[in-house]
Each structure stands twice: as C-alpha cells, then as structure tokens.
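Run log // design_07
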C-alpha cells in the first residue's frame, strides 16, 4: 500500500471510535481498526464481514464506518486484483435489507442510511464501470449504482455506454431482453 493509500485509509479508520461500538461478533468493535487496515493493505478478508455484516446479513453499528473506510480504500486506487473484493463488500452493505429492529424503533432506517453513505462515493462507482479494469468490479459498481443513484435515466445511459465492460447479465435491463 502506497503512502497516500495508507494515509488516506488510516485517516478514515482513525476518525471512528471503534471500541465504543458493538461489533457483529458481539464484542467491542475495537479490533476492527487493525483488521480493516490489513484488508486495505491487501490481506485476505477472511471472516471480516462477519463483524460488520454478521450472519443473516444484518446491518450493525460498525457497518457505516466500515462503509466509509471502504470508500476511502476505493478512492486511493487499490490494485486491480482487489477491486472486486472491495466493491463486493460495498454492495453487500448497501444491498442489505435487514437490520436489528431496535434501530427502527429508535427512528432509524439503516438501509436508507447505508445507501446515503454510499452516495458519497457515487463518482467512484461510475469511474469503475467505465474504466474497463475488471469486469467483476464494474459489475459490482454498477449494481451499487442501481441501488443508490437517484437518477435512473443516468444509470441506463451508463449501462448503454459501458457495453462489454459490464458482465453479460447487466448489459440489458431486467425484463427488456
């Protein structure tokens, strides 16, 4: 990981009080900071997602800070070999539809919040789709856009412009082939 990448990701990791959050594993999320930095540096994520998107794909307190860290990682131009993994993790966080009902009782819609957080990286997703670097990463980025971009016509224009840079199943809108 280059200095910019490492500084940018560390900056985002350090912004959060991980120890004050309850992790998906049931313990303090304090251990996530080091694990996220290792993942950003190219380490195998292993079961990292069980801590921010535990069994049953339920959004938990660290889900949002993890999403912000992933956006920082993606903005730091990670190696092409890791792009699909990072975009896949973002997609898992924004595509999720379940969360602890106690949040809803407190007036929070965690799915909407995660999608709003992901909108901060909107142009990262567009750039990835059009980059041609990795078809799987482009596919994940496009699926993220389908969920978070509020301008549906822009997404359809992107689909047409991207062409073969997208996986086959995303080249036409569902129900139009």
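design_07 sequence
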């Amino acid at each position: 990981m280059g200095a910019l990448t490492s500084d940018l990701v560390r900056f985002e990791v350090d912004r959060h009080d991980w120890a004050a959050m309850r992790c998906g594993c049931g313990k303090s999320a304090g251990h996530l900071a080091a694990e996220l930095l290792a993942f950003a540096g190219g380490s195998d994520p292993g079961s990292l997602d069980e801590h921010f998107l535990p069994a049953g794909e339920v959004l938990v307190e660290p889900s949002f800070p993890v999403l912000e860290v992933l956006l920082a990682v993606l903005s730091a131009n990670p190696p092409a070999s890791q792009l699909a993994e990072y975009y896949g993790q973002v997609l898992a966080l924004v595509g999720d539809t379940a969360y602890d009902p106690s949040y809803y009782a407190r007036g929070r819609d965690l799915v909407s919040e995660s999608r709003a957080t992901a909108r901060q990286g909107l142009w990262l997703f567009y750039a990835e789709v059009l980059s041609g670097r990795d078809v799987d990463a482009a596919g994940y980025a496009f699926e993220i856009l389908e969920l978070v971009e509020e301008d549906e016509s822009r997404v359809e224009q992107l689909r047409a412009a991207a062409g073969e840079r997208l996986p086959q199943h995303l080249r036409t809108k569902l129900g139009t082939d």
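Strands lie at 58-59, 98-99.
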